Amino acid sequence: MATTTIKRLTLLFSICWIAIQGNGQQDPQFSQYFFNTLAVNSGYAGSRDMLNVTLLAREQWLGMEGRPRTQTLAIHSPLTNDAIGLGLSVINDQLGPVRNTSIMGDVAYRIRVTHRSRLAFGVKAGLNLFKAGLADLEGTDADDIAFSQNITTRPLPNFGFSLYWWSDRHFLGFSTPKLIENDLSRTDEVVSIGKEKRHFFVIGGMVFNVHPVIKFKPTFQLKYVAGSPVSADFTGNILFDDVLWIGGFYRIGDAAGALLSYQITDQLRLGYSYDYTLSKLSNFTSGSHEIMVSYDFRFRKDGIISPRFF
Fold it and tell me: What is the pTM of this model?
């Protein structure tokens, strides 16, 4: 009985996910968004002043068959002239038979605002690939035309822009990663699934001292797309000696959770988050898990790497 229920839920979520993706309602959600800024804001490229590689993997709604799984790769670095930052961001998002993959390049032009702060104008451009393996779904009618064929769209080009301002203790950004509202049709252009819609993101945060070896870092992320309510994340981290970060977050009407991050070396950081679902889905899942690995490549032998908070 439980297995049948889970399979039905998987089918239901898969159908809903196709509708959601087809209408561009939601991009993937990340609890450690402050470590994954390049995914939505191209102005972030090069802001760490060294080559950075960040990997993030998210397992959502653990315990449910066909649950959402998301992996991201972000690589970015400033150029030698210090005014240009370049990056590459890859997002692979899957729920059941539905897979959505985006590969985007990032360019940021940076200007100095004050001695301690900069403003970057960013452009993101690349391709999006959408595939739905509907023919492999269990529990569907074999004679149902809607589920008799897999759906694969042609590569869809897109681009976006962003603004990102930061100092050693503050950051604020605005972005829309995809401006083109592509039609999601099959490669034969016979069946249209829907259209992508523009997403708008606002992110921000700061760090301030509460003790000689303790800091507090509040951050937020707002996400909006026409036809959907605003998604809002509010996060707070306590930093111990700039090495251990412990915190929590609240996503309005959706989830709450805990965060843990540890700076293993000056260059290597590991992060983990756990989401507890606040909706009725909590009856079917034990929560969501997210793991992050970030590495800063230091090529210069001289100097000391100062703590990076964003």
Answer: 0.86
Distance of CA 212 to the CA centre of its chain: 33
Question: What confidence score (pLDDT) does residue 24 get?
Answer: 41
Angstrom distance (rounded) from CA 298 to CA 113: 26
Domain ranges of the chain: 2-297
Q: What's the pLDDT tens digit per position in 198-246?
A: 999 999 999 999 999 999 999 999 999 988 889 999 999 999 999 999 9
Q: What is the 3-state secondary structure (H, E, C) of the chain?
A: CHHHHHHHHHHHHHHHHHHHHHCCCCCCCCCCHHHCHHHCCHHHCCCCCCEEEEEEEEECCCCCCCCEEEEEEEEEEECCCCCEEEEEEEEEEEECCEEEEEEEEEEEEEEECCCCEEEEEEEEEEEEEEEECHHHCCCCCCCCHHHCCCEEECCEEEEEEEEEEEECCEEEEEEECCCCCCEEEECCCCCEEEECCCEEEEEEEECEEEECCEEEEEEEEEEEECCCCCEEEEEEEEEECCCEEEEEEEECCCEEEEEEEEECCCCEEEEEEEEEECCHHHHCCCCEEEEEEEEEECCCCCCCCCCCCC
- β-pairing, 231-240 with 214-225? antiparallel
Backbone angles phi, psi at 182, to 5 degrees: -65, 145
Q: Tell me which CATH code domain 2-297 carries.
A: 2.40.160.40
Interacting residues of 273 by C-beta distance below 8 A, sequence separation 6+: 31, 32, 249, 257, 258, 259, 260, 289, 290
Does 50 score more than 50 pLDDT?
Answer: yes
Distance CA(225)–CA(175), nearest Å, equals 12
Beta strand 208-211 pairing with 199-206: unpaired
Q: How many CB atoms lie within 10 A of CB 81?
A: 6
Distance from C-alpha of 250 to C-alpha of 256, rounded to nearest angstrom: 4
What Å distances lie between residue 86 and 64, 66, 83, 259, CA to CA? 38, 35, 10, 29
